[in-house]
Amino acid sequence: MAIKQITVFVENKQGALVSITDTLAENNVNIRALSIAETEDFGILRLIVNDEETAKKTLTENGYLIKVTNVVGVKIGDAPGKLTEALRVLDNAGINMEYLYAFMARTEKHAYVVLRVEDDEIAESALEAAGFHLITNADICKL
Fold first, then answer.
1. What is the pLDDT of residue 38?
2. pTM > 0.85
3. Which spans in 36-99 are helix H?
């Protein structure tokens, strides 16, 4: 049930990011969530999109170095401590988390959190058993 994340290695220079987003927009790929981390010379752009195949093809054809990674998406209630509850589930299951980022859904009641963990299946099972709703690629397409 993991969702696909596209990681793009971006040169850290003016116009590089807009070139990527423009390429995606021209090919009708809608960005649903993103995270960018930078160093002095390059950045790592992580994307959740509505059409992973088109994004992958388009970016590769335009010379971008990309990687597709499975990540876990989980719906978190919009209240203090809700993220901690989800993270505690993973911690109690012995699952290491590499990184996370969040994005808001179209309601005020919850946010979606993208988690990169060492074992997707165990993380998903633990979160579902604790009552959390997992996000699917179909959910991403509906946003």
1. 79
2. no
3. 52-61, 82-92
- Where is the domain boundary, 69, 93, 121? 69
Alpha helices in the chain, H assignment, sequence order? 16-26, 52-61, 82-92, 120-129, 137-142
For 79-90, give the DSSP string: STTHHHHHHHHH
Do the Cβ atoms of 84 and 100 come closer than 8 Å? no
Question: Would you state the structure tokens that stand for residue 79, as one six-digit string?
Answer: 């209240």
For 108-126, how does the pLDDT look when each residue is reduced to its tens digit (9 = 90+)?
677 787 888 888 899 899 9
CATH code assigned at 17: 3.30.2130.10
For the chain, the distance separating the N- and C-terminal CA atoms, rounded to the nearest angstrom, is 17
The confidence score (pLDDT) of residue 130 equals: 93
Q: Are strands 42-49 and 110-117 parallel, antiparallel or unpaired?
A: unpaired
Domain containing 55 equals 3-69
Residue 5's pLDDT band (boundaries 50, 70, 90)? very high
Q: State whether 36 and 61 are in the same domain.
A: yes
User: Are 75 and 60 members of one domain?
Assistant: no
CB 67 within 8 A of CB 61: no
